Amino acid sequence: MDxxxxxxxxFTTLLIATTLVLISELLLSKILNxxxxxxxxxxxxxxxxxxxxxxxxxxxxxxxxxxxxxxQNFSQGYKTGLIWSATFGITVLTxxxxxxxxxxxxxxxxxxxxxxxxxxxxxFFITAGLISxxxxxxxxxGFIYTYFRKYNAFIAIIISTTFFALPHFQLNTFPVIPIxxxxxxxxxxxxxxxxxxxxxxxxxxxxxxxxxxxxITGPPL
Length: 221
Prior knowledge:
Layout: H1 3-32, H2 38-58, H3 61-66, H4 74-101, H5 107-110, H6 118-148, H7 153-165, H8 176-192, H9 196-217
Helix pairs in contact: 1-2, 1-6, 2-6, 4-8, 4-9, 6-7, 6-9, 7-8, 8-9
């Protein structure tokens, strides 16, 4: 397949995936929110997105390999995910204690707002801790990073991280953690050539933050 056809195929794949993700995010969410809890809606939408994106990638073996879903590099991605998760966790912990030692409180960048009852908290851990990281890595690294990687890794890292951080941006809070996370996820993907690496790091990071918040703020009523 020549470069022109490869470019067209990758662009078409990215366009289809983006369209389906946006439709499910906007239309399906509105429908489900009419009779379901918001966290349940997010769980269903993210699951649907995962199936749609995997289906798109599996329709072309070349896309499957480029996007890191091939079993060929799974072992490397799995090991990378575990090692990088531990390294990232130790680094953050060291930085936290170092900054607190000099009087800078960094907890405000780590703690999140958890649901106010046990059921929604459990659903939150499942959705935001397990399902959403898989869906997000499929889209931001499996599609966006893979598409822009044809220019070079640096451009792909910047663009995929920017798109990943934008939904986390709030007027009074700069998305420091998502930006750092996005860079780490992209670098681990580039290193291992497997989506297993950023998925494991993403899940580990999210669950760590959630458990830390639960430990500090206490369980819901």
